[in-house]
Amino acid sequence: FFASQTQFEKNHIIAAFRFELTRVQTQAIRERVVSMLANIDDELATGVAHGLGFEVPAPQPKALEVAPDPEVQVSPALSLFARPGDGSVKARKVAILVAPGMHGASARALHAAVTAAGAVPRFVGLRLGKVDTSDGPIHAEISLEAGPSVLYDAVVFPDGDDAVDALLADACVLDFAKEQYRHCKTILALGAGVSILEEAGISATLPTGEDDPGVLMVPAKESAHAAPRFLKALARHRHFERETDPPAV
What we know:
- The protein is an alpha/beta fold.
- It folds into two domains: 2-62, Catalase, four-helical domain (Hemocyanin, N-terminal domain, Up-down Bundle); 93-242, 3-Layer(aba) Sandwich (Rossmann fold), CATH 3.40.50.880.
- The protein has eight helices and eight strands, in the order H-H-H-E-H-E-E-E-E-E-H-H-E-H-E-H.
- Helix 7 links the parallel strand 7 and strand 8.
- Helix 1 (7-22) packs across helix 3 (42-52) and helix 6 crosses helix 7 (194-200).
- The two termini are 31 Å apart.
């Protein structure tokens, strides 16, 4: 099973073992579990042992002196990446943050495009109620405290200097941005909204130096054309090539 996973999935499995075994209070039990993993895969055992702060112990004695030859060494079908879906964004939830002074037209256009594609956008405000924009009010559908980052597959930060100042005055907004980034979700910043990503330490460049396909920083003059790029990134669901251990942001 482990050998059939992508590297992203292997990293998650190793991190999951580390997470659970860190909560075990007896060192001997931690070592015994890792000694079992040593019979499964060297990379798995080494990764878990490193995260727990000790060397890989000797493998546990095997039940059979001569292990039977496996019928299958690797099966790609065991990886979740073997089932990428149909590439649609249906039912994906998108948070469009709103605040007074934002550019309303670009946010409304994006809301309409996301809805038309079958996703579920929500105007997320610092509080419920009417939000005055540059071209008419928008009504926040849910507040930031009631709709945290984990509920959404992507986030959009609006254009507008006053709106950005209002959002940055709430530290929860930076937490929202950082959690979206750490969870490898799609992030779109329109115009002045790029400042929020800069304050959060979020880069549009991957650790490899390549462009991050899931962090879109769109100038205000190009906001009207942001929807197709955003929906393409959203269709990937997660951008695991961004992930680092420990997190960079």
